[in-house]
Amino acid sequence: MTRKHLIEFIRKQKTAFVSSVDGEGFPNIKAMFTPRKIDGNCFYLSTNTSSMRTQQYLKNPKASLYFYQRGPFCYEGIMLIGMMEVLQDLDIKQELWQDGDTMYYPGGVTDPDYCVLKFTAQKGRRYRSLKNEDFNMNHLK
Q1: What is the DSSP-derived secondary structure letter of residue 10?
Q2: Whose CA is closest to 58, among 66, 69, 50, 70?
Q3: Structure pTM?
Q4: CA dihedral sign of residues 121, 28, 37, 4
Q5: Are strands 75-87 and 131-136 parallel, antiparallel or unpaired?
Q6: Which residues pair with 33 in a beta bridge?
Q7: In whole angstroms, what is the distance from residue 1 CA to residue 3 CA?
Q8: Nearest to 28 by CA among 40, 18, 36
Q9: Tally of helices (H runs) and strands (E runs) in the chain
Q10: Left, alpha or beta for 56 (phi > 0: left; psi -120 to 50: alpha)?
Q11: SS3 sequence, 52-79?
Q12: Is the C-alpha dihedral spanning 120, 61, 67, 48 positive or negative?
């Protein structure tokens, strides 16, 4: 697994599965749009400040992201494990803002219900062609 393959793979996907931990310690999974920005080990997503998931991250930042591609003869899945931060910084919100976001955030980029999730991956696991591969994000070339 190389960093280049990881990023190219993620950018090809339309959906990211994002997990959080609820107040009782159980995992919660949600489908979201893929990250709008990838910078090193950091993956940035936009979401609602008021969402259940955002509130869970504020209490427990442990998270994972999962991406997969299913082909007729090959299945590949990549899970990333790390920590999630909830960002309200206007600069990053403006950087990630896209046309059409007012459908979700009518108040625009300064809408208090618009925030950015910053996921910092520490390690991961890849499944492809009946094989699993564990990796440390800091050791990917």
Answers
A1: H
A2: 50
A3: 0.95
A4: positive
A5: unpaired
A6: 15
A7: 7
A8: 18
A9: 3, 8
A10: alpha
A11: HHHHHHHHCCEEEEEEEEECCCCEEEEE
A12: negative
DSSP 8-state assignment for residue 35? P
Tell me which amino acid residue 141 is: K
Sequence length of the chain is: 141
Q: Which amino acid is at 63?
A: A
pLDDT at 48: 97
Supply the pLDDT for residue 73: 83
Which tens digit of pLDDT belongs to each residue from 64-75? 999 999 988 889
Q: How far apart are CA 88 and CA 90, in angstroms?
A: 6
Cα–Cα dist 100/117, whole Å: 19
Paired tokens of 55: 């509130």
User: What is the per-residue pLDDT across 4-46, written as a single tens digit (0 to 9) for each?
Assistant: 999 999 999 999 999 999 999 999 999 999 999 999 999 999 9
Q: Which residues contact 103 (CB under 8 A, 6 or more apart)?
A: none
DSSP bridge partners of 21: 27
